[in-house]
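Justification of computing resources. Each target in the renewal requires a structure prediction run like the one illustrated here; the chain below, 267 residues long, is used simply to show the kind of job we budget for.
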Amino acid sequence: MNEGSCIVVLARKRHEAAFINFKTERSRSMYRFAICDDDSQFASLLKEALITNLNRRNISFEILSFDSPSSLISRFEQGESFDLLFLDIVFQDTTGIQTARRLRSFRIDTDIIFLSSSSDYALESFDVSPLHYLIKSPKLEKLEEALDRFFDKHAEQNFYVKSREGILALPVSDILFFEIYGHDLSVHLTSGENHTFSGTLKKIEEDLPSSTFIRAHKSYLVNMAHIVKIARYQITLSTGQSVPISKKNYLSIMSAFVDYSTRSLEI
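Resulting structure tokens:
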């Protein structure tokens, strides 16, 4: 076993179909970061703080800065990609939230950390699934926490499924929801793929972290990281798909999601 890795096998019996494999090493060797802010002074401050932090983590990286959403979007349209985007909320002709909505409409799943001098837009920003909401300050006190969240998310964390196609390693962050139909379980992914395997939803629920996955209905287990809206009878996911909500569980689901949202947007 490589130094720095920790494997926790949660399914120990041969007939069990799935388990979680946690690895602490990073999922890639090179990361690309983008800063989009029309305040050049703050953008420079953030870039220097990023360089210091990433060097301390022994990260290989590239950082590009943009002074307008249009120049940023142009790069995406040219086929460039970034792992993490620091995006200001307020611009002269638009907002960072509108820019993020446009990026999401292109099905761009770059992680976004919003930048703002106040928390006024925090709740509104949640419908574009930001990774974090960072208050602008000279010392950038929460930058370390925001980067910890990013690297924790991108550490190897796979859900292993023994399906009809063989044994598959599925990134937990790519899982939208699990669905049970009869004796078959299906796992639905952000890519649009789904895989069927044998097992019980109860066992999957026990294996996965309750802080991220919630039982929305007797037939559905949902990854809260991909929830964008909860109505009385259904959950809407980041892909536009919907999942039904059990009436008796509605209040507990709302409470769990509020807790999750609060943790995600902690400022």
